[in-house]
Amino acid sequence: MTHEAFTLTHVTATIPLEDYVRDYRDKERFMGYCKQCGQYGKRWSCPPYDFDVDTYIAGYQQVMILGTKITFDEAYRHSFTTAKERNEASNEAMETAIKLMDECHRQLEKEYPGSLSFTGAKCFLCAPEPCARLKNEPCRHPEQMRHSLESVGFDISKTASQLLGMELKWATGIELPEYLVLVTALFVKGEIAETPSSLLGFDALHAQ
Fold first, then answer.
1. If we measure between CA atoms, which residue out of 30, 206, 43, 29 comes closest to residue 136?
2. Residues 131-160: pLDDT tens digits?
3. pTM score, two decimals?
4. How wide is the angle at C-alpha 102 spanned by C-alphas 13 and 120, nearest 5°?
């Protein structure tokens, strides 16, 4: 997918859930990071949760990891005059990627009945309305809302670098990084077949 300011490319990898939990999950560490975030307790897609996260991810055998690389146009990267402008551009790009992958995961969940998706940390189902959690009201879209991998304790940086071959990049000054990375996943009961691009909705390389 190409946007006038950035291009999206995709890489997939598969790993048994047992291995993914053992080698890429540190629940206490990443729950601690969540507590430092300004959105903690303000969105139903974010912790603290009203369910046990260990039980939530149990019962699945395989994990399909999907990495979306958001590569910025070089001139666009250097076009900002303030950090605020840069942050707005970064958020717009990430929102585009999250919405695309959300649609992708809806299709994958149909292909793999009983599967569970983990998408981006930001939920846009109620936008532009704020999350109902701010008013101590239940989620308006509980059947559609999904959580992120990091919010249940998975290490996104390690996942991206070791399973997808993508090192995370961060902005410096008022410039965008060369690229951003969104990591999503599908937890599946049973085996994962080679997923055709027609199902994903885009071409994707499979990490070696």
1. 43
2. 999 999 999 999 888 999 999 999 999 999
3. 0.89
4. 75
